C-alpha cells in the first residue's frame, strides 16, 4: 500500500467503519478487516459538513481507473451487508473498497489484490457524495 498523501474520512464514517472492523475481525474476513483498519489509521478525520466534495466517503459513487490497464469502473462504496456486485455496489471490506475509501479525485494508491498482485487505482471522479449532496448519515 503506497500513497501520495493521507486519506480523508468523516467522523461518522470512521465510527461506523470501526464497528464493521470489530464485527468482521474474526473469521474469513479478518484479513480484509485488518487491511481496512490499517488504512483508516492513516486518515485525517473531518466532520461530514467539512469533507471536500471530491473525497470518496461511504455510499459515494466513484469512477476509478486501473493505471496498468486503463480500465475505468464506476461503483458505489457501501457497507458489507449492502454489497451487490451485479449492481456495482462494492463493499468497503473488498480489496477495491478498502483502497477507495478516503481518496480524492486525482489521487492514486497501489493496493494488494487477491492472488498476490498489486493494482494502482486512480480516482477519476466522484459523481455522487452523500455529504456534498446534503444527504448526511443519520
- Structural class, by secondary structure, is alpha/beta
Percent in strands:
25-35%
CATH architecture: Roll
Unreliable residue runs: none
| Tally of separate domains | 1
What would you report as the Rg, rounded to the nearest angstrom? Answer: 14 Å
Helix content: 10-25%
The topology string of helices and strands comes to: EEHHEEEEHEE
Oligomer: single chain
Integer average pLDDT: 91
Helix/strand layout:
Blueprint: E1 2-3, E2 8-10, H1 11-23, H2 30-40, E3 44-46, E4 61-66, E5 72-78, E6 89-91, H3 95-100, E7 108-112, E8 118-128
Parallel strand pairs: 2-3, 5-6
Antiparallel strand pairs: 1-7, 4-5, 4-8, 7-8
Helix pairs in contact: 1-2
Structure description:
This protein is an alpha/beta fold. The chain has a single domain (2-128), classed as Chitinase A, domain 3 (Roll), CATH 3.10.50.30. Helices cover 22% and strands 29% of the residues. The protein contains three helices and eight strands. The strands form two sheets. A six-stranded mixed β-sheet has the order 1-7-8-4-5-6. Strands 2-3 form a two-stranded parallel ribbon. The chain is globular. It starts with a strand and ends in a 10-residue tail after the last strand.
